[in-house]
What we know:
This protein is mainly α. Helix 11 (150-171) runs parallel beside helix 16 (237-256) and helix 26 (467-476) packs across helix 27. The radius of gyration is 35 Å and the shape is elongated.
Amino acid sequence: MQLNLPTMQKKENELHNSILEVPIEELNLSVRAYNVLKGNGLDTIKDVISFGLNRIIKLRSAGIKSVKAISDAIAFAMTEDFSTHSHKEQEVEKALLSFEEVAKKTLEKKLLNASLKDLNLSLRTFNALKKIGIETVHDILNYGLDNIGKKTSSEIKSAISMLENQQQSIVENITFREAVDNIFANVSQKNLPVIEMRYGYADGKRKTLEEIGNTKGLTRERIRQIILKEIRRITHYRARNSLELIIENIERLLFKYKGIIGIKDIFNDKYFSAASRNHVIFVLNLLADIYEEHYRFIDKYFFTSLNDNEIKNLHGIMREAALKCKFPIEEKTFINNIISTVGSISEYYLSYYLLNKERIQMSKGMILSPGGLSMPQRIKLLLSDVDRPMHFSEIAELYKKHFGEENCKASDIEHAIHARIGDSKDFIIIDPGTFLLKSKFKLPNNIDEIIEKSGEILRELNSISDTKFLIEKLKQQKINLGSINAYSLKPILLERGGFVSYHKFEIGLEEYINKYDRKPLNELIFELFESLRRPLHVKTIWKEILKQRGFPEYAVSQKLADDPRFIRIAPATYTIASNIEQYEEKRIIITNFAKEWVQLKGSGISAFFVNEVLKASDKIKDLSLGIVEHVLATSAEFVKLPDGFYNLKTQ
């Protein structure tokens, strides 16, 4: 029988074209794979092949499973309708990708570098891979699944897809409830009730170890061990993505409200709006336990990432804003005035703080007086519009009128004001009993000359002197002093640096400090770090300092906290940059990540969040929160905001 080749070729072409026009609904795809294609206008096999699987990989929600399912479905459709491999079919086959190719193009670098321990593999498969030198997901893909048995290959594909699903959940911005469910999925069912009781999942009430032990018939220590074990599972890589998503949203709210948020603020947020109160309390309790150095509760109803000093600074800003108000004042107006001055802050926390901590006096919706707000802060705001020096008795009269304390004795107010202003660094003494805000004091144009000449006089003396003597010498040299006198010269010299304060009017040079045995405490501490070249606990530092000077332990702790050269690497344990291995490399990675994040998100970032993300990425070994805080705080590119977050100086 003679064959009609042109006719057969024509039929084959027609058959090929009919297959290419098959709608994707007939490919028996999963819902996700179907939605990926349909959502991007790919309605037929021809559309998919023309678009290209390499481009489909980059589409939103197109994971390993989805792309591989699409590839396999097209291959099946082609082989079902072709008894022989035509050149058309071979072109299609070239467009199809293997699991390994899809995985390499789909997974982030972070997941490709995930170790075998991060995969949910059987012990047999794990040991087999280790035996042939495979350590990471990338190693598996390079080795090739065709070189591994079919059953083992299937197990590995499922394990890698599970990792990819964790990545996909972040891309798809899973809800708060889904994130909580993902966390629970990593807790063993046997110990789940322990975790629920510990962090108040059922009733919002956190149970003690002893209470849980009594319920479960176990010792307090055994309950503690169970909780630690489950926390390790929760913070393991497979659950970290959900945890980081929750942390990111908590950090977003903390940034918005200057580091303190109320439970009500969380409920009012879109991401948490569908959550129950108990679920939110559960997550906050969990975060406060896992990250106890960063998160904590304030009086049960408020959650913060601020330390004591940062909270103190925030309270100071709130006080200043409150003191700008004239009393009595309506409560609503009072609150609005503070928020308009301070900026975005939790209204719930502001009301709670002013009413319960500062004890402002209220009656029928009116604020009668600022209650327990500090006197120096009141006086500072009271004199903010005054440009001339005032005697403390005159300040007392203004104070009584502004704050409605007409019933107080004038002598009592005068005595208190004189004592408080004298101790405050915000004021300069112009004459005995006469004060002016330091910000209002007008320095002469030749202030640099005055400071330079003062230093020269002290060097010529080669000794400690006093400001009265300096004023006399400066006048002899016909130096214009403006309004500077013996009272005001000392704080001006100390603020410029290079000078050391002694008793009353006495002052000296830092360069001669050893001569007078007055080396600053922070310098003694720094020298100790340089000599021992290792991290030191506060108590160890204090004991060493006691050998030279009689400073109390709290003074040592304060200097460690205030001086940016000291880096806290663990609770009450500090070091300096020169003692940290590969400090410069760590500084560059931290700075670059924080800069990219701020530029991408358009908002500030906390040192805690930077630390958590970089630790999870394995980019830096031996990273601590203190190192991140030190790098950001000392970086010329970042500025620390009052709420403890960092932002680029150009933002």
